[in-house]
């Protein structure tokens, strides 16, 4: 066991590091050119990290893998903060791999900047909610939406329909008919203001 250079164990340590960094970014990052106090504050409430895929080669129950590959999806409301996490995470991953005597290749497959919804448009959507607008919170969406692709062409904004228990994009997702109806009426009210303004 003492002679092993096991990439599976290294991958497990890297994944736990990722979880820890994303749960506690203030403990993970230092104040420097890559991160400032504003970035740290926004990261604390918006940073989400997911390892959704892992594969090994060769994949046999009694063989130390020669290669382990896993994906990392990292999202935040603030680009500077997200980049700071990627920078620090990459540095620490290389150190762990070196300590475990395994090679490490980090390949950035996709990079999408955060998109901020238009404040005027968001305000109009909130106003269109009518009687319930005081109960309407402003939310960050961690998911990719068409708004990201359209933001360079036009103003973007989103209206979310509440889901039972806050679960969305899940088989357990459930919305009440009256909430769908309320959102639809808010959209219609918003469209009416746009048509007559």
Automatic annotation (TrEMBL):
Q: Known catalysed reaction(s)? A: allantoate + H2O + 2 H(+) = (S)-2-ureidoglycine + NH4(+) + CO2
Tell me the cofactors it needs.
Mn(2+)
Tell me which UniProt keywords the record has, alphabetically: Endoplasmic reticulum, Hydrolase, Manganese, Metal-binding, Purine metabolism, Signal
Q: What is its EC number?
A: 3.5.3.9
**Record-level GO BP terms:** purine nucleobase metabolic process
GO CC terms of this entry: endoplasmic reticulum
Predominant location category: endoplasmic reticulum
Keyword DNA repair in annotation = no
Q: Does the keyword Cell membrane belong to this entry? A: no
Q: Where in the cell is it found?
A: Endoplasmic reticulum
EC class: hydrolase
**Highest rank taxon of the organism:** Eukaryota
Q: Name one GO molecular function term.
A: allantoate deiminase activity
Similarity field: Belongs to the peptidase M20A family.
Quaternary form? Homodimer.
Q: Tell me the function of this protein.
A: Involved in the catabolism of purine nucleotides. Can use allantoate as substrate. The sequential activity of AAH, UGLYAH and UAH allows a complete purine breakdown without the intermediate generation of urea.
Designated name of the protein: allantoate deiminase
Species of provenance = Quercus lobata
């Amino acid at each position: 066991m003492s002679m092993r250079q096991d990439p599976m164990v290294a991958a497990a340590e890297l994944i736990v590091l990722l979880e820890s960094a994303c749960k506690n970014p203030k403990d993970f990052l230092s104040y420097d050119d890559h991160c400032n106090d504003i970035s740290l504050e926004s990261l604390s409430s918006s940073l989400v990290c997911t390892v959704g895929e892992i594969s090994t080669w060769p994949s046999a129950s009694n063989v130390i893998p020669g290669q382990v590959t896993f994906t990392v999806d990292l999202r935040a409301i603030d680009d500077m903060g997200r980049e700071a996490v990627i920078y620090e995470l990459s540095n620490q991953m290389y150190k762990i791999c070196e300590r475990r005597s395994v090679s490490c290749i980090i390949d950035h497959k996709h990079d999408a900047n955060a998109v901020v919804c238009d404040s005027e448009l968001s305000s109009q959507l909130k106003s269109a909610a009518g009687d319930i607008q005081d109960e309407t919170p402003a939310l960050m969406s961690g998911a990719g939406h068409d708004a990201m692709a359209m933001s360079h062409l036009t103003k973007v904004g989103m209206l979310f329909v509440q889901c039972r228990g806050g679960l969305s994009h899940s088989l357990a997702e459930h919305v009440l008919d009256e909430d769908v109806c309320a959102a639809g009426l808010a959209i219609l009210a918003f469209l009416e203001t746009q048509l007559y303004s």
